[in-house]
Design goal:
It is a single chain. This protein is globular. Helix content is 37%, strand content 23%. Strands 3-2-4-1-10-9-11-15 form an eight-stranded antiparallel β-sheet, covered by helices on one side. Strands 5-6-7-8-12-13-14 form a seven-stranded antiparallel β-sheet. Bound molecules: 5-amino-5-deoxy-1-O-phosphono-D-mannitol (M6R). 5-amino-5-deoxy-1-O-phosphono-D-mannitol binds next to helix 9 and helix 16.
Length: 612
């Protein structure tokens, strides 16, 4: 949540900061602001409630602000309403220190009261302002900004990535990180900080990732990093291997649609390096076959769509491995005194690699002795770095808040992991293994086939978009798929919708079905096709309008009962959700478009959820 960018160099900082913020806006879009320092004008802060374009108009795209060093912020409000005053950067009372912050200062009330007791007055309702004020307080005491930073860090609790600009230090700004992402960028005669590499990729691909407790002093020609004790740290540099076009719309109206269309290629890239001589290989895995054989249990933890991938994983991995697999919401796992130990493999799934709940669950599982394997998209992210093993999805940057290609690449990777473990455990008959691999290879092309049905789905959305309540029903893998279809639809179209295991309807939910209720019936899971058909008949008898999804083999039979049937190509059972999710994503997209919603930046949401 919230995006941070910082620049110091020889060019005008304003336009560079605004451009960086535009690329970070997916992280939060309640308000935006910049602080820029110049010899003539001193420390200038400009901020505005609303989307970045409001700020951009205020500062003429950044050109109206003088100076070649500055920090910027795009906000997802936590403490205090999204208004101008609560927007970042926040200033100290004497306006000599400006701070941008991503995260939450948990003990801000106590610090605020302490500082108010010292006669310091506050302007905003935010937790962040205490950082600026506390820093200024210690700066007045010590006369040394670095000492003041360390004293301030000693006092604050919570999660934070901070950018700090001080009027007395015109050639450098300070960056700090704990439990919130922040990276350093090394340009030609210029340096950067950013929450995410997309903000600075235009200027440099050479980055390093800050660790918890580190403090960086960022100058145009050098970045010095110190640990929590103030000792210098040598940072390892990484090179980003994708370019700026990957983070641009490239002619599409929305990032979400572009990312839906990119799925076959993203899945291809995820599969390709891990398939050799028709066997799945994970050269990046450190676990030995003996360790894999010794596993007694697998627990998958994640949030949101990544959790839905885990739900598919529960069905598929249990089936392939004949080992118990449990999938848990990371936010629940943390507080349920989980039964994991050194015989448990905990699979952590996260696109961003920064989701706070998921990160906390990872740390807890680790402290209990579990082996942690993460499936992550963002290279160098916190979850990737703290895991024992990491499998990258190689989906490229995903900008739309609603995940699509990350979901698909996570899913294929989890299935591949099932194949890999199953091979070692000998739990998959050779013939079945070969047929799954064959379908794995065919998957990207079959995804392309599904994308060819876009116009039909668009038409169905044009007749369905006025519904105010929608139910997704399905059994087994179709239930897991329904969870994702329903989340996609509600998060971007704001239509109330729920996913139910179809067999559960009769235990209560069916009382909600009345004339004209839209039910999206998922019938791709062939072993339970007949049972799903019975559930369709039941809801139709109560007046529901049904839109159904099945595979080519069952389409004809389904059409006898339901006029609106969407199809996916036949494939092995484990890959049905990989194909089935695409029509549901496209349906959600066009429903939201018909309703005039802000598809890439749905209300109240942010891409990277770094608050609890
Ligand atoms: O980055 P992560 O995969 O950890 O994010 C988890 C969820 O916040 C995320 O999947 C969210 O549910 C998406 N907006 C769904 O489209």
């Amino acid at each position: 949540m919230c995006g941070i960018v910082g620049y110091v160099g020889t060019e005008q900082a304003g336009p560079i900061l605004l451009d960086g913020l535009e690329r970070l806006e997916y992280r939060g879009y309640d308000s935006a602001g910049i602080a820029v320092l110049s010899n003539e004008k001193g420390l200038q802060v400009k901020k505005a409630k609303g989307r970045l374009k409001v700020l951009s108009a205020l500062v003429d795209g950044g050109k109206a602000v003088e100076g070649s060093i500055g920090i910027g912020h795009t906000r997802w409000a936590t403490h205090g309403q999204p208004n101008d005053v609560n927007s970042h950067p926040h200033l100290s009372e004497d306006s000599r220190i400006a701070v941008v912050h991503n995260g939450i200062i948990e003990n801000y009330v106590e610090i605020k009261e302490y500082l108010m007791g010292k006669g310091i007055s506050f302007r905003s309702e935010t937790d962040t302002e205490v950082v600026a004020q506390l820093l200024a307080y210690h700066y007045r005491q010590t006369g040394d900004i670095m000492q003041a930073v360390y004293r301030m860090l000693h006092r604050i609790e919570g999660a934070y990535a901070l950018g700090i600009l001080c009027a007395d230090m015109p050639d450098a700004f300070i960056a700090v990180r704990k439990d919130a992402p922040l990276l350093l960028g090394y340009g030609q005669g210029c340096s950067f900080i950013a929450s995410d590499v997309t903000a600075i990729i235009k200027h440099t691909r050479e980055v390093s990732y800050m660790e918890d407790g580190e403090v960086a002093v960022v100058r145009a020609d050098s970045i010095r990093v110190y640990n929590a004790l103030g000792r210098p740290v040598e940072k390892e540099h990484s090179f980003i291997d994708w370019d700026v076009s990957a983070a641009e719309k490239g002619g599409y109206a929305h990032f979400m649609f572009k990312e839906i269309m990119e799925q076959p290629e993203a899945v291809r890239k995820t599969i390709h390096p891990r398939l050799k001589d028709r066997r799945v290989v994970f050269e990046e895995l450190k676990m030995s076959p003996e360790e894999i054989r010794a596993l007694q249990r697998i627990v998958i933890v994640a949030c949101g769509s990544s959790y839905h991938v885990g739900m598919v994983g529960k069905y598929n991995l249990e089936r392939l491995l004949r080992r118990p697999v449990e999938t848990m919401l990371a936010s629940e796992f943390r507080y349920c005194d989980p039964l994991v130990d050194e015989h448990t493999l905990v699979i952590v799934i996260s696109q961003s690699g920064e989701t706070l709940d998921t990160m906390a669950a990872l740390r807890q599982a680790k402290s209990l002795g579990a082996h942690i394997l993460s499936i992550v998209n963002v290279v160098g992210s916190s979850i990737a770095r703290e895991s024992d093993e990491v499998l990258y999805t190689w989906a490229g940057p995903e900008i739309a808040v609603a995940t699509t290609k990350a979901y698909s690449t996570q899913l294929v990777l989890l299935n591949m992991l099932g194949l890999y473990f199953g091979d070692i455990l000998g739990s998959i008959p050779a013939e079945e293994y070969a047929s799954i691999v064959e379908e794995l290879q065919a998957l990207p092309a079959k995804m392309e086939e599904v994308l060819e049905n876009t116009d039909r789905i668009k038409y169905l959305a044009s007749v369905c978009f006025n519904h105010s309540s929608i139910f997704f029903i399905g059994r087994n893998l179709d239930y897991a798929l329904g969870l994702e279809g329903s989340l996609k639809l509600k998060e971007i179209s704001y239509i109330h919708c729920e996913a139910y295991a179809a067999g559960e309807l009769k235990h209560g939910t069916i009382s909600l079905i009345e004339d004209g209720t839209l039910v999206v019936a998922l019938c791709t899971y062939a072993p339970l096709f007949d049972k799903s058909l019975s559930n369709i008949v039941e809801v139709k008898a109560r007046g529901a309008d049904v839109l159904a999804l099945t595979d080519d083999s069952h389409a004809e039979e389904l059409r006898k009962t339901v006029p609106n049937v969407l199809t996916i190509p036949d494939t092995h059972t484990v890959f049905k959700p990989s194909l089935g999710v695409i029509p549901l994503q496209i349906f959600a997209y066009y429903m939201a478009l018909q309703r005039g919603c802000d598809i890439d930046k749905p209300r109240n949401l942010a891409k990277s959820v770094t608050v609890e």
